[in-house]
Design a protein that fits this description.
CATH superfamily of the largest domain: TolB, C-terminal domain
Number of strands: 42
Number of helices: 0
Strand content: 35-45%
CATH architecture of the largest domain: 6 Propeller
CATH topology of the largest domain: Neuraminidase
Number of domains: 3
Amino acid sequence: MNLFKKCLDRNEWVQVAPAPNAHAAGMCLCSDERSDISRHPLVYQLVSATVLNRFNIVTKSWNFVQSPALAGTFGAGAAMDFVPSFGLVGTIAAGATTDKVTLTTALPAAVGVNMLANRGGSGDHGFKLRITDTTAGKTEERYITGNTGGTTPAIRVHSPFSFTPATGARYEIVAGRVFMLGAGTTASNIWRSLEIASNFLSTGLSTTGLPATVATDSAMLVLDEQYTPYNMKPGEGMIKGAFLYDAGHVSRYALVATAAAASTLTGQATLGDAVVAANEYRNFQLRIVQDTVTPAAVGQRRVIASHTAGPSPVYTLGTAWTTTPSSSAKYVIELPNLILLRTSGTTTVYTYNYTDATINNGTNSIAANSWSTTYFAAAGAANAVGGMWASSYAIQPDVDRNSRHSFQHFFRGSSASIDVFDIAGSITGTWTSAIVYDGSVALTTGSCGSLAPNDNEGRMFYINIYASGALNQIFRYDVQNRVMASYTPTDFIQTGTAATGGRMTTYCAMDTDKNYDVILLQSHLSTLAQELIPLV
């Protein structure tokens, strides 16, 4: 319980164990932003082309993971981020029971016995297993409690599914991946990922479409289906429904359709999405999570090309259904599973599809493991040093929709300018340059920041600003109300020649009554690290 009293009690930074490696140009941190116990309990530190470390948020300790073997010349422009979804996907073999399945699509690397039942020494749940079954017409998730070794393990879960998974049902081990971008001349393996559950380091991820040289501050934004508003669970999407699906340990709510056709789905007449504004969720994803009338429809994901305003909003899809859902299908509206990258001093928005299928909004499409420079529109001004993204996915929109889940705030860098990219503003999104906001602060080389999506109504983006040779200044920007304000400074002065790098990240800590954000900040050009719980 938060008993913090404003003005009387004090926010305080607390020093944690020093990082194994000092910050240098291009070094960065990332973490899983999910808002429940499924979030990965390790923060990753990309130090160089050959060093990747991790920090255990429970034990407050660091260790070396492995060499990411990134191509290029590591330095300014290197970036990383955590993606919760699509790390391990495939189908299951015959012989499943309600609490045990065997994989038939092989994992990319062998896992040890019971390795999937422990997420990095945290001592709590194992990784989350999602089964999407087109025979039962259901999507359900359970935590893993045991597994055999090898690339096609038999997996035991903590409580039974409500059905016996059919042969060929789809599995997803929702563990996540760390995506890493090197710097310098673009070449094979400058863009790689580490799959968390199997510790598999990818090779040959596509670099087609990236700039020829990555040499200026990069800013990466993950739009993932597991990321939801502060008061909702992963799997519930952006709008709270009333239908309880998967009523197990990780039970969640979904919306209920009122009609469906070959390329459309009609939403609720009251409550839920009956209040949406026209095209408020264009370019978001609609996913069928349960359909016991038309079971083959379950699991389908489609990008929303356009939609009418509620009540009974009609969603027109970028591509037609493979199987048209029933008129009572259960669905969620989610972020579209894309990475947005700004880099190398350009106006281009580099968009990457990290899923296992083509993403199509009806006008543009991106194949799996591909980049596009045209899926989303170019910005009005180039990115520069100190540039960074601040998403608003974690808020709840105000009644008049002045603030929306689709607004992605971009700190342009080398200035105090903030641009807002509305991914739903048109089929390629709409940029608003240099918005008006309160509390103008210039971001320069050495500045870094992180969204805190679980507390303060998901509104706050925290920033460590380089100014006048000192970096102890902390600010926070309210993405819903567009206000920049000074915040609790660090208790050590960080000095030295300004060097780029995303030295700040945020993770979710859970208490019995609510979730709390914890900010982790590595000191500039140092191994020192501190944490802060932003209670106000």
